[in-house]
Design a protein that fits this description.
2 strands, globular
């Protein structure tokens, strides 16, 4: 298996693990009256802003904080609020239905809707942070968290998140188009690798006649491979011990590898949003040799702090968070995840995996087609404005058609099979 296939598999494992956290968090929020009341309170400013005070609020804001002249669009309106709910709903449907991170489509979707890349990343981080705080189930996982492991990891993740935030802000200050082009390129590469692996895996499974499950499997921790054994054998003090209740005598690894791993996760969170959770699981299990049980607890722990730190210190205080969008996406994703999870009970897993591959590849194509016009504006390539605009529009329409068709299919399947699903639940 070549490097690109390995990296695609690596990302799929992480996306699957992150989706499990998303689903559990959604259930915790929707199953608790106090959390639902809190959600309603958080939504009040966004609803009032979008319905009643759009012009007054946007007109009073300085450019840095989202005046109409700063971002396009980055002001309160009913249309933007509804669009954010639909984007969150689609992301939730993908997450719940496929069991792999639908959060990958949020930033591309926001950018396609006209939001600047840096604002899309900051808003995505804030949305994840709000979801993590509201649905926090850390107290249920304390037995599976190695506190020393988590704390050392967080040192690295905060360093990485700071670096990622600085990179995005510096590029934006140099040229907003350069910032968009950078974020677009990162997403095009990551989604391209993930989508190619997902489509290859789908075609192989279909050819062999394996139905499989919707989630594709392969995300659970396994026995340590050669790389984790080599890393744990290197004695670079201080050594951090963990997994005492799982492995006789426990395991230990140098703080250096934990800090470096955390820095990579934090960097991804700071640049792309999505909380970095899609990298934590595969790094912990397949690189550091941490058991899957400990990894799940630590991942929940790190998402809260990494997303919160990156969202607040690297984006919110600089005016790069769009509250209305964040709350709309939170609302949409909570319900989308539940609907998607139910549909997996009545649809063959192989079909869902095919849709997921198409959705991720559509996101990659969307970002790839958005690049020429941006590079043309900066003078890096020669392309006419009409051609660049045509490619950009083509990428946007292809993306939303695929995502929209998937959402309609999932919701339609859900409505058609309501009676059957009620029977299964009973």
């Amino acid at each position: 298996m070549n490097f690109f296939q390995q990296w695609g598999k690596f990302m799929m494992m992480g996306a699957t693990a992150h989706a499990k956290w998303e689903l559990e968090t959604s259930r915790v929020i929707l199953g608790d009256k106090k959390r639902m009341i809190l959600l309603g309170i958080l939504l009040v400013p966004a609803i009032l802003g979008s319905l009643a005070f759009a012009d007054q609020i946007s007109g009073a804001m300085p450019d840095l904080l989202g005046d109409k002249n700063a971002y396009s669009p980055a002001f309160y309106s009913t249309g933007i609020f509804i669009a954010s709910i639909l984007i969150g709903l689609c992301a939730g449907l993908i997450t719940g239905c496929i069991g792999a991170g639908g959060g990958f489509i949020i930033a591309p979707a926001l950018m396609s809707a006209g939001i600047k890349g840096i604002l899309a990343v900051g808003t995505d981080l804030f949305h994840i942070f709000a979801k993590a705080i509201m649905g926090s189930v850390i107290h249920k996982k304390l037995g599976n968290i190695s506190i020393p492991l988590a704390l050392v990891f967080l040192i690295g993740s905060m360093i990485g998140a700071t670096l990622g935030g600085i990179i995005n802000r510096v590029l934006y200050e140099i040229n907003p188009v350069l910032s968009d082009a950078f974020i677009t390129t990162i997403y095009a590469i990551m989604l391209g690798l993930l989508g190619t692996y997902a489509m290859t895996d789908y075609l192989k499974s279909r050819k062999s006649g394996q139905q499989g499950d919707a989630h594709g499997g392969g995300a659970e921790g396994a026995q340590m491979g050669s790389l984790p054994k080599k890393l744990q054998a290197l004695n670079v003090p201080p050594m951090i011990s963990f997994d005492h209740g799982i492995t006789p005598g426990g395991r230990s690894i140098s703080w250096l590898f934990l800090v470096l791993s955390g820095a990579l996760v934090g960097l991804a969170a700071g640049i792309m949003g999505v909380g970095g959770g899609f990298l934590t699981f595969p790094i912990f299990v397949y690189v550091l040799g941490v058991s899957s049980m400990t990894t799940v607890g630590t991942d929940i722990f790190q998402i809260v702090f990494t997303a919160g730190y990156a969202g607040i210190t690297q984006y919110a205080i600089y005016g790069f968070i769009f509250y209305t969008l964040a709350m709309g996406m939170l609302l949409g994703s909570l319900f989308g995840i539940q609907i998607g999870a139910l549909v997996t009970k009545v649809v063959p897993g192989i079909t869902i995996r095919g849709f997921y591959a198409m959705a991720v590849l559509a996101g990659a194509v969307n970002r790839i087609f958005a690049l020429p016009s941006k590079l043309g504006k900066m003078g890096y390539i020669t392309i006419s404005k009409p051609t660049g605009a045509f490619l950009d529009t083509l990428g946007i329409w292809s993306f939303f058609i695929v995502i929209g068709a998937f959402a309609i299919w999932v919701i339609g399947t859900f409505l058609i099979n309501i009676d059957k699903l009620k029977g299964k639940e009973a």
